Amino acid sequence: MQEPLLGAEGRDYDTFPEGPPAPGPRTRPGALQSKKVFLATFAAVLGNFSFGYALVYTSPVIPALEHSSDPDLRLSKTQASWFGSVFTLGAAAGGLSAMLLNDLLGRKLSIMFSAVPSAIGYALMAGAHGLWMLLLGRTLTGFAGGLTAACIPVYVSEIAPPGVRGALGATPQLMAVFGSLSLYALGLLLPWRWLAVAGEGPVFVMVLLLSFMPNSPRFLLSRGREEEALRALTWLRHTTDTQDVRWEFEQIQNNVQRQSSRVSWAEIREPHMHRPILIALLMRFLQQLTGITPILVYLQPIFDSTAVLLPPEDDAAIVGAVRLLSVLIAALTMDLAGRKVLLFVSATIMFAANLTLGLYVDLGPKTPAPNHTVGLESMPLGGTATSYLTLVPLLATMFFIMGYAMGWGPITWLLMSEILPLRARGVASGLCVLVSWLTAFALTKSFLLVVNAFGLQVPFFFFAAICLLSLVFTGCCVPETKGRTLEQIESYFRTGRRSFLR
């Protein structure tokens, strides 16, 4: 029985057997020195740091603005829901722009361009004197986040050797988590305006570092800049001899030449094109439906509504630290355990955590509810502060964040950049981000409305059901890409065999 491509092992496996053998040593790219690729990755993922920082900016700021002494800045419940959710509309617009910019400017320049709306957005929020400045600043930082979310994973996957692509592919999510944790930590020390000022720093550092980094060799080859592409690959592999990267360069070159023309709608109907795009889209859709964005955006208000032992802002910082640790674990194990194993573990943990939160809200101790329509902060969640049951919301949220950060957080971004066909990668990655953030907007905007109408347990039960669906989807549709080059993955989808679904 023939072994499936993605399960094939051995350094001499050739993705393109019909072509002539490449001259020079057949060295797997992952075996080469790749110190400089880590520097290029770090420069790029600073954009994700700013994205993670901006995403949860509302967590400590909404409670502060709800009690602001300035009537022009004091937020009502409706205004707070817009302030929390408008970021996702900006991110959707950024993902839509990435469909054009990713292939027009290239991955690196698109990431650098995101610094413009990001810096303006932070400046608007830092100097806000009215709601419109807060909403516009939040939208602009969301636009920058959506743009980087589509461009950075593609850039990282295209410069990384296969042996470390899993670990490097987790760094965008890792830096986003670190950005969120930094916001939670600074929120304990700084007023909300200075939190916006602090967000400017990583943006400028990112632009400075990226100006010294090369473009993606695949993008350069797609533009016919072969000599520049070879120099970029040689620099990224930390070698001075172009022969050391000749085999990898020719593999990339062959794949780019095969797909030099733009993809047509007729070709999209071919299984080898639409199947990976559909898998990536559904993964981004399910990732958001697990509830991660509304939970992160309203994390401190959620803890404000619970009877927990620690202050809500401390609980939010603890959850952020757990999230960071979990992504580190995923980064270290992704190239060892594989993508699918971590996705199964991730969805299982998230299901248990969401179910626990829903049952606690529905069946746990309650405080008397007011007769009028309530906001999130008045939902009856807990009993007395001395009860051990008051630890349940914090622990369940910690496990949910841990489960998400171990699998469905970083791996969906990594798989998106791995399985999308090269000819459609720029457009398809932008489409994935667009779908993701439109879903996030719908969830974030409706979260408070559902809580007011039906209770906080209803969203958590819904999220738990989605996690079960994610388990089925992973088992049936998600391929294992550990240890494969991007060319091998794409060639695998072209075979038409269904073994990648197992």
UniProtKB/TrEMBL annotation:
Belongs to the major facilitator superfamily. Sugar transporter (TC 2.A.1.1) family. It is found in: Lysosome membrane. It is a multi-pass membrane protein. Residues 40-482 form the Major facilitator superfamily (MFS) profile domain. Pfam families: Sugar_tr. Residues 1-28 are annotated as: Disordered. Keywords: Glycoprotein, Lysosome, Membrane, Sugar transport, Transmembrane, Transmembrane helix, Transport. This is Solute carrier family 2, facilitated glucose transporter member 6. SUPFAM superfamilies: MFS general substrate transporter. GO terms for molecular function: transmembrane transporter activity. GO terms for cellular component: lysosomal membrane. GO terms for biological process: regulation of glycolytic process. Gene3D superfamilies: MFS general substrate transporter like domains. InterPro entries: MFS_dom, MFS_sugar_transport-like, MFS_trans_sf, MFS_Trehalose_Transporter, Sugar/inositol_transpt, Sugar_transporter_CS. The chain crosses the membrane at residues 37-62, 82-102, 109-129, 192-213, 277-296, 316-334, 341-361, 388-415, 427-454, 460-478. Probable sugar transporter that acts as a regulator of glycolysis in macrophages. Does not transport glucose. It comes from the Eukaryota.
